Amino acid sequence: MLNRPGSPGSAVVRRASRPIPLALLLALCSFIPIMTAATRVVQIPLGALPEDSLRLAVSLPAFFLHAAAGLLFGLLGPLQFVRSLRGRYGAAHRWAGRAFMLAGAVLALSGLALLLRVESIATGLLDAARGVFGVALALALLLGVASARARDMPRHRAWMIRAYAIGMGTGPVGLVLFPLYLITGEPPTGVLTDVVVVGTWLSSIALGEWVVRRLASPQPGMAGVR
Ligand code: HEM
């Protein structure tokens, strides 16, 4: 109903799905995790981790790989979905796609390794979600590779969108939690925080699924990302 052609909803979708606004929207939502990952990639080799991340140093290789893979995955994802770039730079798109897959796989495996090896300060709810979504990310990437090999490109695109939504699913919550961290000087923790994080993760995955379904049924408004 909201997105019927000509309705206000369809106009919003049309505007947001043009190549540049889509990339900008994704960049805004993933800005904080990407910047955190970039900072850790520099801090880990320098041995300059902040006190509240020292916990993660018990598994330094997994921590470094996780941050480096998250950085690459977060940067490449939005670019891979812009059709005009895919058309103009086909070979670069394919190489970037391989790097995106590899980064996603390393992100999922290192995330699971951190989950198993690091003493958690989160609730069981968030840790369970990390376990489930870490495995789900690996599965989505495997299905994406399988469909690309089978030359089923619509299916490949759908699994890549799902993988991106799972991997970056907590990104938008940083827009709320990071300012809270700056104000209080303490990382926000507790049941309420974790409910918000998991809720954001599920919403991102639902949004990704919605995009997949819209792309599957021809809509003029999604032309930029098709
Ligand atoms: C399915 C996806 C993901 C899973 C399962 C996952 C899992 C984890 C786990 C278990 C931790 C340790 C948490 C702790 O005990 O404090 C962690 C930390 C971290 N993750 Fe992820 N993660 C995912 C996606 C991402 C992405 C996309 C990025 C970056 C763009 C990222 C960047 C980081 C960083 C920088 C840390 C360390 C935070 C700090 O220093 O306090 N993660 N992740």
Distinct ligands: protoporphyrin IX containing FE
Oligomer: single chain
Query: How many helical stretches?
Result: 9
Low-confidence stretches: 1-6
Structural class call reads mainly alpha
Q: In whole angstroms, how far apart are the ends?
A: 22 Å
Strand tally, please?
A: 0
Mean pLDDT: 88
Order of helices and strands: HHHHHHHHH
Count of individual domains: 1
Radius of gyration: 18 Å
**Major beta sheet, specifics?**
none
General shape: globular
* Helix content bin: over 70%
- Report the portion of residues in β strands: under 5%
Structure summary:
By secondary structure, this protein is mostly helical. It has helices at residues 8-16, 19-46, 60-80, 83-88, 90-117, 124-149, 153-167, 174-184, 191-216.
Model description:
The chain has 226 residues and is an all-alpha fold. The protein has one domain (15-225). It is 75% helix and 0% strand. It has nine helices and no strands. It is globular and about 45 Å long. The two termini are 22 Å apart. Residues 1-6 have low confidence and may be disordered. Bound molecules: protoporphyrin IX containing FE. Protoporphyrin IX containing FE binds at residues 33-34, 36-37, 40, 53, 56, 66-67, 70, 73-74, 107-108, 111, 114-115, 118, 120, 130, 133-134, 137, 166-168.
